[in-house]
Amino acid sequence: MPVIGRPRGFDADLALDAAVDVFWRRGYGGASLSELTAAMGINRPSIYATYGDKAQLFQSALRRYVEQNMGYVTDALHRPTAREVAAAFLTGNARAVTMPGRPAGCLSVQAAVAPEHSAQLESLTQNRATIQALFADRFRRAIDEGDLAGDEDPDELAAFLITVTSGFAVRAADGTSHEALLAVAQRALASFPATLGSASRSNSRTTESKEHTHA
Amino acid sequence: MPVIGRPRGFDADLALDAAVDVFWRRGYGGASLSELTAAMGINRPSIYATYGDKAQLFQSALRRYVEQNMGYVTDALHRPTAREVAAAFLTGNARAVTMPGRPAGCLSVQAAVAPEHSAQLESLTQNRATIQALFADRFRRAIDEGDLAGDEDPDELAAFLITVTSGFAVRAADGTSHEALLAVAQRALASFPATLGSASRSNSRTTESKEHTHA
DNA sequence: AGTATTCTGTACTGATCGGTACGAAATAGA
DNA sequence: TCTATTTCGTACCGATCAGTACAGAATACT
Fold first, then answer.
1. Which of A112, A163, A189 is the closest to B173 by Cβ?
2. How far is A7 from chain B (nearest CA, A)?
3. Number of Cβ atoms within 10 Å of the Cβ of A23
4. pLDDT (tens digit, 9 = 90+) per residue, B23-35?
5. What is the maximum span of chain B, computed from C-alpha positions, in angstroms?
């Protein structure tokens, strides 16, 4: 790496975090270079030298956002049963989109609205499609492992979860509280297939009333 | 009305429809005056003389959008039971956000992303809050009328539906098909309380398998 | 010290943004 | 035909946009 020449006067990852925050709040088109430079604490040519143009900066910011703020996805995927995967994903997302001290909502959803540059929309859509595929694969494995009924459609279950969490992002940006989203998560979970095989229901269920009987 | 002076050379409602289309696809910030004038077939001063500035034009477009493209909301509210209200709302929204020949998604969601002007975000949020309140009131009536269990929370049920349809808007903008959204709608409906009182289940249910037993 | 190399800060570029001034065009009433 | 009134079209306004040229500053190597 470059050891000769004037050393960089800022932390590239820290500045990228600031850019994440701006894109998160404003979206891609709504984030101006002036606002980005102000938030990142560096001036314009430093951005272009370090990250490339605005589109490349956004891609880097999106990657970092996923790393830093979507850990709940892989956490959820590692739960032992399909139902616990779904529960962890829904509650984890509800928490992530209403984190105090961070912008409400989800960068991936906020930025996907004004698709002036189709390249950005493309990567965002693909990002969500990838996550959906991860859950679909996880549910296929659950069927193999026997904790999910074989007549369930893994793709449809994954689509259901992604749709609900996409809704969470919109609602959170609207100002909906964490508690309200959790209540919705519990109701959504009520329509998720029950866990098979374990006589003792090992799910970490927090609601009391409604039970779903699966044929 | 003004009968004297040069007559207007365009249909104000037709031009507004074109503006709706642009805002629908691009959002508020993403819709430039140049694109609006091109789509509406009129030039800039005519817009300002007829509708006011960009913010006022957007408000008019939003109002017309609700009138022209959200009829399924009032349709749903008039269904006889809470469950049919929910079913009609979900399927009606799934249809509306994937209408062929129209932009995918929902103007109200598309435009809510880059809140550079908080006034626009305000009206959009309030728009959705109003709809949510309408459904909550409808569910309160359903409890009074006896087709919805008294221990259900009308506000929470309304929040659930709004969250799912918000998700529909995002997913449709992502390119998700009408059929995929309908499948999600059916699953969401599975977590909706069953209709009370009517021995013969009068719901227009199209799925076959899952049934929800309410305590 | 001198040079090569890299980064920083200012100041700029052309393009586009929302919004408007102003004169020509088109109507109604006189 | 003349005047009052309204709309239309062009051509512009200052502000902001993303992106960059260029000179000075800071380091390493010789």
1. A112
2. 36
3. 26
4. 999 999 999 999 9
5. 70
